Amino acid sequence: MRRRTIGAGLVLAVVSTCSVTCFAVPEWVRRNDLDFWDHTKRVSSLRIEEARSLDLESERDRFLRRSAACDQIVLSLCERRLSLRDALDELLVLARSDPRWWANLRDQYRNLGLPPSASDREALTLLLRMRIQRILATATHLGDSARVSLVAERLASFDAEVREMMGGEKTLARTRP
């Protein structure tokens, strides 16, 4: 009987202490995440953050797949397994499969000076040129002389092919190195 009384007294003391602490120093309690009365708000906030995390993870996966696909197209172009026209067609398919990425890419290029009336092919040509330059810079940094010579040769012939494909006019890929 005495144990029950002591147990009940201890529980009452702990609850009283917690209640007084919560009312006496509410900022300290919130700062240390000891407030439990907003549990449903915290749980819903946690669910929102989990959903956002899943969205970011799926966006990251899409980005990595798209980047790998672009790199593969550019490598195939550099190794002359793909013609310029075929590479542009494959990139156009990739761009149309993800309209949000394509719109963001066009906005970035517009910030670089790409005119709003530029065709999709011109924008993709610029993307190809920039990716080839990135591969060249990476190969140079790694000291891969075979790849450097291959990519440098491809980059040298790239502008002429673009001019020929676009009808001899000055293209964005040529004006924006």
Please tag this protein with its features.
2 domains; 0% strand; mainly alpha; elongated; 8 helices; 177 residues
The count of helical stretches stands at 8
The arrangement of helices and strands along the chain is HHHHHHHH
Number of domains: 2
Largest beta-sheet characterization: none
The count of DSSP E runs of length 2 or more, i.e. the number of strands, is: 0
Mean pLDDT comes to 80
Coarse structural class: mainly alpha
Rg:
30 Å
- Span from first to last CA? 89 Å
The dominant shape is elongated
Strand content is under 5%
Low-confidence stretches: 170-177
By oligomeric state, this entry counts as single chain
What does this structure look like?
- With 177 residues, the chain is mainly alpha-helical.
- It has 2 domains: 1-33; 70-177, no CATH class.
- Helix content is 82%, strand content 0%.
- It has 8 helices and no strands.
- It has helices at residues 2-24, 26-31, 39-78, 84-97, 99-112, 120-142, 145-165, 172-175.
- It is elongated, with a radius of gyration of 30 Å.
- The relative contact order is 0.07.
- Mean pLDDT is 80; it is low at 170-177.
